[in-house]
Automatic annotation (TrEMBL):
Protein name per Swiss-Prot or TrEMBL: Protein BTN
InterPro entries assigned to the protein according to its UniProt record, in alphabetical order: Battenin_disease_Cln3
Species in which this protein is naturally found: Colletotrichum salicis
Biological-process GO terms, alphabetical: amino acid transport; regulation of intracellular pH
A Pfam family the protein falls into: CLN3
Amino acid sequence: MASKSKTTARTAWSFGAFRTFLAFALIGLANTILPSLIHAANYLIIPYPRHIVILIEIAPTLLTKLMLPFIIHRIPCRIRPLLVAVVWVILKRIADDTPPNVPPPIRIATAIIASAASAAMEVSCLGMIGHAGLPGLAGWGLRYRRGVAGERRVAVSFDRGTKNARGKQREDASAEEGQSFHHERSRFESLRGLIRSETLPLFMASAAMSLSQYDLARPLDGPAFGTFTHFYTTYGMALHLGVWIGRSSLQFLPVRNLRLHMTTLFVWTALAFFNAVCLISTHLAFFLVFLIGVAAGSVYVNVLVRLVGEGRETAAGEVGFGFATAGDAGGLLVGSVVGSLLEMAMCRSLVGGKRRCYRAR
């Protein structure tokens, strides 16, 4: 009887974990595909250069992740997906019914709303992962084409102040005022520690990955590829394959110290830049960008799992995840813009007819 009850409990737990995994996976997949469709339908690359388009599409994500965690707890968790779904339906309808020759301000507005809605859904889901546990984190990770498993958890607490009751004596009020001051100071120290230990590694990993994606492809040659689109697609697949492997390797290679991964990430990025400048080998470029993806993916998933804490309030989790993943969005913004500008500078200064910079296709 005991073994039968254990089997039943294990089956029930597995079914519940699978439901959690599937729910977060479906929401994450939709949250990734829909903004891409809206951005592609806007055709902003026609009236604006690429670095301006990147600013339009990513800056709202960064601002939303920095500001929304402090107010999103006022909205019930069950209503948030419905609100975001309504926004997606409206944006999709606008994108379907709007011709490409519509004035740019309208397309810019839809791109900003799409990015903000995607960031809001990400902050909300990551905050709920503190209660859903690793099955929810693994399901949400599918939006980045990765799986997650691990047990290292670090809780980051952000205390919320309490209101003073009426009719208390002055001594009690003074004591509460001093306690409130200590709470605010503790909150500031926790936030500063979060930025230093979690946000900065995500920023640097995302910046290195974006820089290699937007800067180092066009100066290469790619003689085996007929068009740049074919070459760039293969280049991007190598990068994202590395990201997928890095973000799904936690159960095999758990990280206790991110310094080694950050060091290897910088080494691979420097070697990839040197290879692009000297035009050593396209196959070496594929291998190096794959290694960059592995290192960046490993940094991301280890930081994210460290933020998964048991017993953390949803509001506190949303603040922690929001600020941490803001580093990812900030790194993507900085790396993409700098990479686009650096690509133009490299194509103007580097000579060599074999480079993609000097080809019509």
